[in-house]
Amino acid sequence: MSNQKIDSKDLKKVNFTSDVARSLGMNIMNQHFKHTPKSEKLDILANVLEQPESYVDDPVLGILAQKLIGKPDTMDAEWKAYELENVPKHFDVFGTKHIEENAIRQMELAMRLPIAFKGALMPDAHQGYGLPIGGVLATDNSVIPYGVGMDIGCRMALSILDLPGSYVEHNDFALAKVLKQQTHFGNEGGLEFKQEHEILDHPDFQQTELLRRLHGRVVR
Question: Does residue 65 share a domain with residue 6?
Fold first, then answer.
């Protein structure tokens, strides 16, 4: 149902003027309302935009409502707001044909930040919250906590098997069935049962898990 996804142009039609709110709205709709018709998604977002106070406590839409309302400044220290640059800085993309358009647009938005220095999209990149999952952003003397994303422990690994390439073609159905049985995908996903495997016990993975426990999040 990819034709039911919404993009930045759709949100402009319902008067979402903030780049941040548009990005957040697209992600919420495309993650939590995958099977909802496009017109209904836009109606929901229009309602949140019109009456954000009514959605503050909503478990899914609450974060968007809070962003639309804005939080009062309770800090005594002075702060300065910066405008986005008109043209995004260059960033490298690895595996362009496999990366969804929304992830590229989201990275372009990040590269319009005046503090953005360098950026890149990895082959597994897909739309996230502050940044695309699989996106890398180097900033000039700045830290963006919101740019980490929500996929804790998300990673890629390469396994080299002593099998010819034709093995996949001849056993595609069986391999797809095994993958579905062994993994569970989704924003609230997780393995259905405890799984033991030597790959999961590899020191590289264990180090990532330690970082997650220390910092509460993983930086790629």
Answer: yes
